[in-house]
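job 3f2a | input accepted
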Amino acid sequence: MGQEEYQELSSFLKRFNRRFKLLQGIEGICLTAICAVLLFAAGLGVYQLRQLLPYAPLAYSVLTAIVLVAAIAWTLYRFLGRLSQERAARYIEEKQPKLRNNLINSLQLYPQVAEAKNTPGFSTTMVFALLRATRKQVAALKIDDLLDRSRIRASARLLGLLIVPVAAMVFLNPSWVGGTLNMLANPLDHIPPSQTTIELEPKGLRVVRGSTVTIQASTAGAMPQSLELITWQGTNAKGELIGQEKTVMENLGGGKFSSKIARLDKSLRYRAVAGAFTSATFVAEAVDTPEIANIQLILYPPAYSGLGSITSPEGNIEGLKGSSVRLDAVTTKDVVKAEIVMDDGKKIPLKIDGRKLQANLVLFQAQSYRILVEDSHGFKNSPISYELRVKPDGFPTVDLLRPTEDLEIN
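job 3f2a | predicted structure (410 res):
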């Protein structure tokens, strides 16, 4: 007796629990969707402020993760969480005051009857009568009337109101979606770097002594506002820098800097520094160009002239056509290439012996010439023009030595 009524009540409560938890799950889904839309809309502002507030994308990503995880967890808890029959009965009695606690009393009193736990003052008959009366009351109830859908409808309306402007913003600026998703997926990419990388150009150089040198620097990572170019000539026995100089490099913008050495008279080492960060060290080598230190010409007139050789220490010489000329020169440094360039374009190679140069040529016509030399680094001299002049050779003359007066002969 009473078991059938109790089972009907229990079955009703189970159906109610399933519907109630379904509504709670839907409400949680709506809340999660509202949070997602709001956070997604906030992404546009965060994306625009990322330059001014570098840590905003990270904070936005963390906040989004926390809110969404909490909303999803809350939804799952309400949807999958266990709702006891007693709690369901109290909820129904709050919605239906006419039950007068009959439902919760029936649930609590019937187990005592079934387990034969009669105590003084406990009336089984009254419990059965309560069950029958409660069953009739519950049979007249509809589960849909007990469930409050107002919160779900309010959440759905709010979600719709939010989706419309967000969808319009996405339509007008599709790139916003990619920027927001990128911030969420890669929050650490927008954190300002803490280190500075400095690259110099050129990475070492060799120029003619006295040349102007420009050093370019490019930085990456944490962009410095200023950069110093440090130059020095070497180190002493104590490891101290010799001739150290610091120059503030010109800020070209975009992490680019430039500095100019007006005249490189000595070889230097150089590097750029920004606070605790420094570039690699390179060498700027000042090299002297090869020059002709001494030149001597020896002219040998034709044999028929009977004239002796002529020596000229200046590189210019004059002689009869057909004379042989020997050129000897000394350079200021070792060279790998040397040649005589005539003004008609003809080139005559010079024999190289250390710093000594030697060549032979024949004087056919008056013209100028230059001596070009080149060292192992490819540096060339600044050649001087010399003159080869041809002296006119007159017709042969005969002097009559004897007789010195007229003679008569047979």
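job 3f2a | The chain has a mean pLDDT of 87.
job 3f2a | closed
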